[in-house]
């Protein structure tokens, strides 16, 4: 069954079962999608309402555009959930490949490397998309319905959790690729993404908290 066809309880049951997938990678992508949904809710309850009518024409157009971006982000996150599960299962299947002859051993080793790379790249793509989505949440925090500013703050917190969780999944696969030329580059990117995520999350939460406590 595709993730988009799951009911919440079905996903919970599948995730908590003895099946190795779905696992942490798909869950991280789900959390990112939830952040997108919350942010989209802010727009849904702002557009064509009083707060929206008080915006400049430029910001009205931008909000409508960003709401569409939210929906694309949510769809992408569902696809990332599927991609992570597929990559993980394909990697696990590599361990079942025969290794009786030297040819089989070489083939198995190459397949393991390729599928490990795919399993590493999938959560890395989630991180990259999440970082770009912070700007969307920041706009909702500043210009959305202020009755929902806490929801925008939760969206930022969830997005950071998705980045942290995805990076763990990048690391566990990258660790098996230490001899590859791209290892240091990916490791540097991970650290940069994590730091950027922390900063952006805190900036948004500061905006939300300042309004809540004013």
UniProtKB/TrEMBL annotation:
Q: Where is the Cyclodeaminase/cyclohydrolase domain positioned along the sequence?
A: 8-191
Q: Which InterPro entries match?
A: Cyclodeamin/CycHdrlase, Formintransfe-cycloase-like_sf
**Membrane-crossing segments per the record:** none
Q: Name the Pfam families for this protein.
A: FTCD_C
Q: What's this protein's name?
A: Cyclodeaminase/cyclohydrolase family protein
Its source organism is Clostridium sardiniense (Clostridium absonum)
